[in-house]
Design a protein that fits this description.
This protein has strands spanning 2-15, 24-34, 40-50, 60-68, 85-89, 97-104, 109-117, 127-138. The protein is mainly beta. The protein has a single domain (2-135), classed as Jelly Rolls (Sandwich), CATH 2.60.120. It is globular. 27% of the residues are buried.
Amino acid sequence: MSAIYTPIFTMERFDFTWLGSSASHTLTLHRALSVVQCTRVQLSLRLHSSAGSGLTGSQTIVLAAYGTNPSPVDPREFTKTTPLVSITANSSSTFPSLLSADATDPDPFLKIVLTFTQGATGGTPLWVELSADFLGRHGG
């Protein structure tokens, strides 16, 4: 069995303290990561450090991969609305730690996004240092 390994991003600090009550902000990390030869995919999210002792209340961070298949003749986005695979960090997640999730039978491309959601009280510290990787396996 062979595999492909792609760092999604190296350790980076994200600060979304400015988000209002229960507001979210989504970052697109890859618009169309080719996984044409993959039969199994895995996302890994490293939680390096955070504000205080970690996420609080209803704060969440979600790393998700959505099936997509861009058209060479139509520039609009053709992406599924339900993620193929996702990882959620929340108030029960510890820092540092490694979270991972996998799935089988992906679409030919994956759109990878990172979504931060503030808790019920806007302005609550929401900064973290994260890194993430993708692993795709193919063959028998």
